[in-house]
Write a structure and sequence with these properties.
With 360 residues, the chain is α+β, with helices and mostly antiparallel strands. It has nine helices and 17 strands. Strands 1, 11, 12, 13, 14, 15, 16 and 17 form an eight-stranded mixed sheet that branches. Strands 2-10-9 form a three-stranded antiparallel sheet, with no helix packed on it. A three-stranded antiparallel sheet has the order 3-4-5, with no helix packed on it. Strand 14 (232-244) and strand 15 (247-255) form a beta hairpin. The radius of gyration is 23 Å and the shape is globular.
């Protein structure tokens, strides 16, 4: 009798499906018809991804480029390369300061100095600099939005704005920021995000399945099942859109955590290197989430670990796009470290068609 009940329970649970699609929990979503029955490798049309990418590249970022998380820029001067320009970044009091990483006296790297009483001290001869310009030293315009630190490069070839273009974000939430570099161009990072079809194939540890709900000219809305803790998954509807040419934002529009965002910013560093800075802000109206916010110092490393794990793989995807256009460039070593975890190809799109023909 007990064996029969157990067998019946297993049939109801549908163990095979729970392994592949997971067991759902959280807020239920309204049923949506499957708009396209084709397999993912047919739905992921290189022509659409290419057109969407071209459309996004027409949007100006106002000359603004992300440096890193605001909290990671403090009194200790840091060195950044942005658009091929070496910069030193530090804080004078609470003010974010960025300038060329070169002392006007004899060319020392100012990032090797230190800050004393709000002034950056050159390591060679003790010349000091603050937030105000002086002979041979002219700080760039900066912006701190409370989560990310930005710098404006006036000769980046864009129409300049007083502040960076920011997408809507939750005012409060559990957040984390990661920064990784990849051998690719910023457009390759955006192309990766405009291909959501690769998610459950290339990242099966994080996504159980994904279905397309809407697809516009240059944005896309998906229903995706996130793996929380095997075999449990949480379904959400998420929209991907690009406010500027170097940014793509995923916003949860239905399900658990409506309004939560993942912002991915691609910043040209120097040569063929791109810095990928990703901000995650998770929010919820549930009462217990207020308690979770109080545990942010403990939860932030988990948020950043998950994001970094995905970008180890997605950086390899972006590097592959770049390598296909530049066969003369040595294949990125990162590609060899990302195993294909599915019987299907790790990327089911013609990446050469997405990013252009290889150079002769």
């Amino acid at each position: 009798m007990l064996r029969d009940r157990f067998a019946s329970a297993l049939r109801k649970l549908d163990v095979r499906r729970s392994i592949t699609e997971g067991i759902r929990f959280g807020r239920s979503l309204p049923p949506e018809p499957i708009r396209d029955l084709r397999p993912d490798h047919e739905q992921a049309e290189p022509a659409w991804i290419r057109r969407a990418l071209v459309a996004t590249q027409t949007r100006s970022g106002g000359g603004w480029f992300v440096l890193d998380a605001s909290r990671r820029v403090g009194q200790q001067p840091r060195s950044f390369w942005i658009c091929g320009m070496p910069l030193v970044v530090f804080r004078s009091g609470s003010q974010l300061v960025a300038a060329r990483d070169r002392c006007p006296h004899m060319g020392a790297a100012l990032s090797g100095g230190f800050v004393r009483d709000g002034r950056l001290i050159c390591p060679w001869h003790g010349l000091s600099f603050g937030a105000e310009p002086c002979a041979g030293y002219r700080p760039l315009l900066t912006h701190d939005d409370g989560r990310l630190a930005w710098v404006r490069i006036d000769d980046a070839g864009e129409a300049l704005t007083d502040e960076p273009v920011l997408a809507d974000r939750p005012q409060r939430g559990i957040e984390g920021v990661i920064r990784v570099e990849a051998r690719c161009e910023p457009a390759d990072v955006i192309a990766n995000r405009l291909d959501p079809w690769h998610g459950s194939h290339y990242h099966p540890h994080s996504f159980a399945w994904l279905r397309i709900l809407e697809r516009g000219a240059d944005e896309i809305t998906v229903r995706v099942a996130y793996r929380v803790l095997w075999p449990w998954v949480m379904e959400v509807d998420a929209r991907f859109h690009c406010p500027d040419a170097r940014t793509i934002v995923m916003t949860i529009v239905r399900g658990e955590g409506v309004g939560s965002v993942v912002e991915t910013h691609a910043t040209p560093v120097r040569g063929d290197q791109t810095a990928i800075t990703e901000l995650t802000v998770a929010s919820s109206e549930r009462i217990g989430f207020a308690i979770a916010r109080g545990l942010q110092p403990l939860l932030r490393p988990l948020v950043e670990y998950s994001a970094r794990k995905l970008w180890v793989e997605d950086a390899a995807y972006a590097e592959r796009l770049y390598a296909l256009r530049h066969p003369e460039v040595r294949q990125p070593t990162r590609l060899a470290t990302v195993p294909v975890r599915s019987s299907q190809a790790s990327s089911n799109i013609d990446t050469q068609a997405v990013s252009g023909e290889p150079k002769a």
